[in-house]
Specification:
single chain, alpha/beta, eight-stranded mixed β-sheet, two-stranded parallel ribbon, 10 strands
Length: 349
């Protein structure tokens, strides 16, 4: 019957694989290659999702020093610049335990880019060496974000001291054992530098710890102590007024602002190079796209004439760069400062 034939033909079409025009069989969802492309596109779109939504609330920059000093000022300058790009970025000064309290707070924060640290040698090398219960590892607890600046250290002496060169200072120290005193902020980088100088020269100098750099300068100007190390950011006015004499700078080459002052290297101390550097750090595990976004914005700020002028007023050398460059720099700095801390035999109290 005609009806039976039509039914058989329909059944045959249903059981016969559908042929494409090119003779191949149709594959579900247009084939695996196309599915792979779709998934790749979806993953590609999702990859920068952190950066696309970041930030959507205020960012906190923890500064582990008291307000008002050069490091704090740098932190506020960067926070102000980031605020113009990202919205509110505020500074929180969290001081204590040799700057380790502030660093620990960042190391234990969520790695989401909303809690950042203004780091330096004290927070990332000296503090964890002195405070065994610091609660973080300087190499593994943080993600480097951006280098901000470095400020050179200068060896300074009282004008009343009868020396004008480093060899004369060493000779004086050896001729008067136990009489030459170095004033230093306790457990801070200048403390380590004074201990380094003492070890290199084999002299019996007295290292006098103070609570802060301002007290050191006050007593140096008053004649209670004779020498010390300090950054150019707090010395230029005193040097210009001849209230303090500079004997050497702890840099590779002489400073343009102090062209008559030789380096420690020129003065017979090879490798005596140190600076007060600052950087922005995030908790380890912070997504790379967020780190990259922060780095890009900070570098843009550091390259502006306005920011460079403000850093110049602090005697700071702005140093934009990549997170990878910062990581390499810190990895080289930490062993140096840790060695100095051990030589100094500094107490964490």
């Amino acid at each position: 019957m005609a009806g039976d034939g039509q039914a058989r033909r329909r059944e045959g079409r249903m059981n016969t694989p559908h042929r494409r025009r090119d003779g191949g069989k149709r594959r579900p969802f247009g084939g695996l290659p196309r599915l792979a492309l779709i998934l790749a596109a979806m993953l590609g779109a999702a990859a920068p999702a952190h950066a696309q939504s970041y930030p959507n609330r205020p960012i906190k920059l923890i500064v582990a020093v008291l307000p008002g000093g050069p490091m704090d000022v740098m932190g506020r300058l960067i926070a102000q610049h980031l605020s113009s790009t990202f919205g509110q970025v505020f500074v929180e000064n969290r001081v204590g335990a040799g700057t380790t309290l502030g660093a620990k707070a960042v190391a234990s924060a969520e790695p989401d880019g909303y809690t950042l640290l203004l780091g330096n040698a004290a927070t990332l090398a000296i503090g964890p060496t002195l405070y065994k219960s610091a609660g973080y590892d300087p190499l593994t607890s943080f993600a480097p974000v951006a280098f901000l600046a470095s400020v050179p250290y200068v060896l300074i002496v009282s004008p009343n001291l009868p020396v004008r060169t480093m060899p004369e200072l060493v000779a004086y120290a050896k001729a008067h054992p136990g009489k030459l005193s170095f004033g230093v902020p306790n457990a801070a980088p200048p403390h380590m530098l004074a201990a380094w100088f003492k070890a290199l020269t084999g002299t019996d100098v007295v290292i006098v710890p103070y609570k802060g750099a301002s007290a050191v300068l006050t007593d140096l100007l008053g004649g209670q102590i004779q020498a010390g190390f300090e950054t150019t950011s707090v010395l230029f006015s005193h040097l210009q007024d001849k209230k303090i004499n500079a004997l050497a700078v702890a840099t590779q080459v002489r400073l343009p602002d102090l062209p008559e002052v030789p380096t420690m290297i020129e003065s017979g101390f090879p490798g005596f190079i140190a600076s007060s550097w600052t950087s922005v750090m995030a908790p380890a595990g912070t997504p790379k796209d967020i780190v990259g976004k922060l780095n890009e914005s900070i570098n843009a700020g550091l390259n502006t004439p306005q920011m460079q002028a403000r850093f110049k007023q602090l005697a700071a050398d702005a140093r934009p760069g990549t997170p990878e460059e910062l990581a390499t720099f810190i990895a080289g700095e930490i062993p140096k400062w840790q060695s100095m801390a051990k030589v100094a035999g500094v107490s964490a109290e």
